[in-house]
Amino acid sequence: MNRSNEVLPSANLLTMPPMKRSGFLLALALSFMAQTASYATTVIPPSFDELVTKAEVIFQGAVTDVKSQWTGEGADRRIMSFVTFRVDDAVKGSPGASYTLRMLGGTVDGETMEVTDGPKFKVGDRDIVFVENNGSQFIPLVGIMHGRFHVENDEATGREIVTTNERQAVRDVSKLGHEEQAPVTSAAKSAALPAEPLSPSDFKAKVRQALQNQAPSQ
């Protein structure tokens, strides 16, 4: 894809021959398209066990820096973003005191590349992330956006809770993946009162329990 920022010369479309006019409009459309490249994704939401099993590194942390830059040459030239976390609690693997995710997409000098539905990070975000293939996978999280969970304060109670990338409170880890694939009927919704949103410590305790349960088979 041409990513040039050149401005096409002005022209009077009304006086152009039809073929030349079509070529001009095509070039103009391509010029605008070059400003934003988008990559579509189709992701099957992973279950909680799949999140825990596939992740090479799991940690809770806060985003301290986000940088985007052009990488590669020719057809492989693309914008990559580097998202650095302060690691507050390592749950699986050895992320160290800080950890940087290498992700496809970002904005440099007015040009944007993005992965549709990919997670967007900013300095100050507090997250629990499930990382796999960092440095080789275009979004190095298990299940792309499904491998990122927010840590935020519940507006109703003020207590810290865990939410999905879509800001839905996590109440039952066994429903992760399954709940997103199947519609919930009104009868199912009224069958029982929803559980309280999980706190970060409760959520991480369930991750650690899952890791302990998996240990004998690994």
User: How are the strands of the largest sheet arranged?
Assistant: 4-3-2-7-8-9
Number of domains: 2
Q: What sequence of helices (H) and strands (E) makes up the elements? A: HEHEEEEEEEEHHH
Beta-strand fraction estimate = 25-35%
**Which CATH top level class of the largest domain fits?**
Mainly Beta
Distance from first to last alpha carbon: 44 Å
Q: Count the DSSP helices.
A: 5
Structural class category: alpha+beta
Can you summarize the main beta sheet? Answer: 6 strands, antiparallel
Q: How many β strands by DSSP? A: 9
The low-pLDDT segments are 1-16, 19-35
Which shape, going by the Cα principal axes?
globular
What proportion of the residues is helical, as a percent range? 10-25%
CATH topology of the largest domain: OB fold (Dihydrolipoamide Acetyltransferase, E2P)
CATH architecture of the largest domain: Beta Barrel
Mean pLDDT: 82
User: Radius of gyration in whole Å, from Cα?
Assistant: 22 Å
